[in-house]
Amino acid sequence: MKTILLATALLLAAPVAQACETFTIGDISVERAWSRASIGTDRPGVLYLEITNAGATDDALVGIATPADAMLMLHETVVKGGIASMSHVASISVAAGQTVALSPGGFHGMLMGLTEALTEGATFPVTLTFAQAGSVNVTVDVLSMRAEGPGCDDAK
Amino acid sequence: MVCFGFTNCPDVCPTTLSEVVQVMGDLGDDAAFVQPIFISINPERDRRLGLDAFTQAFHPAILGLAGDAQATKASAASFKIFFAQEDAPEATDGYTMSHSSALYLVGPKGDWLRQLHHGTPAADILADLNSRF
């Protein structure tokens, strides 16, 4: 019985652990990659993550792609005078020694051509391409539609 | 507790509604005295995609409203909010919406209470509501 309980606990813990996984290419590391569950495929999905540049050279996120979506683009929400609008951004700079967050209300990846619905508890892969460091594959955890953050503060 | 938005909004609107959900949960029994309302500023498409499915995915108490163009303009004018359709060739249907992103508190008799800017922590919204019971 104890073994079963332990096994269940490990199964339940697995997605949370994944959400805190760190992916590295050269001086760039990417962590806390998460998304929200979608209702079907008609509405766009979202992608959040954090990028840290531990090197001495400035870098930039210049490309983003995933098999889960035909049109993943980088966007930025700008709230000016209380009005929120979104604009497409071609790249996101990550200066030497800095961390840049794609997080609610700021930069985010927007999935505008979902090939299938994003289900809570599932994951999908995303390939990020940096001008200097090259490409890195990142696993994104799909959290609840109500999620406000990656939910892995315990690991920090 | 009123906010404006559209259901194709991937970033701002889910964030606001997530805060509403957290506040409703933290209110406990007092949640019965608070009606969260999500007013669509993109009513035609939202009705087609299903407004209820969207609001219900967040919280069963959230009432989604989608009027006709005239009613939408009237409610926006009444709250003094801004919304506009913006061309976005890459977006679904070729456009996206910009809109006021605040949360508005209105009393039970329709009396204006206050505006909470986007990003106000749920704890602050909760404290404000609790001070009114």
Explain what you see.
The complex is a heterodimer of chains A (156) and B (133). Chain A has 156 residues and is mainly beta. Chain A has a single domain (19-145), classed as PCu(A)C copper chaperone (Immunoglobulin-like). Helix content of chain A is 12%, strand content 47%. Chain A contains one helix and eleven strands. Chain A has one helix at 2-19, and strands at 23-25, 28-36, 45-53, 59-65, 72-80, 83-88, 92-94, 99-102, 107-111, 123-130, 134-143. In chain A, strands 1, 2, 3, 4, 5, 6, 7, 8, 9, 10 and 11 form an eleven-stranded mixed β-sheet that branches. Chain B has 133 residues and is an alpha/beta fold. Chain B has one domain: 3-Layer(aba) Sandwich (Glutaredoxin). In chain B, the strands form two sheets. Chain B has a five-stranded mixed β-sheet with strand order 3-2-1-6-7, with helices on one face. In chain B, helix 1 (12-27) crosses helix 5. The longest helix of chain B is centred in the first third of the chain and has 16 residues, at 12-27. Chain B is globular and about 45 Å long. The interface between A and B is medium-sized, with 29 and 34 residues. Strand 6 of chain A pairs antiparallel with strand 5 of chain B, so a sheet runs across the interface.
Query: Number of domains in the coordinates of chain B?
Result: 1
Counting helices, strands and paired strands, the structural category of chain A is: mainly beta
Q: What pattern of helices and strands is seen along the backbone of chain A? A: HEEEEEEEEEEE
Low-confidence stretches of chain A: 8-17
Distance between the termini of chain A: 32 Å
CATH structural fold name of chain B: Glutaredoxin
Tell me, what's the shape of chain A? globular
CATH first level of chain A: which class?
Mainly Beta
Largest interface: A-B, 29 and 34 residues
SSE diagram, text form:
The complex is a heterodimer of chains A (156) and B (133).
Chain A: H1 2-19, E1 23-25, E2 28-36, E3 45-53, E4 59-65, E5 72-80, E6 83-88, E7 92-94, E8 99-102, E9 107-111, E10 123-130, E11 134-143
Chain B: E1 2-5, H1 12-27, E2 37-40, H2 43-49, H3 51-58, E3 63-65, H4 69-79, E4 83-87, E5 95-100, E6 103-106, E7 112-116, H5 122-130
Parallel strand pairs in B: 1-2, 2-3
Antiparallel strand pairs in B: 1-6, 4-5, 6-7
Helix pairs in contact in B: 1-5
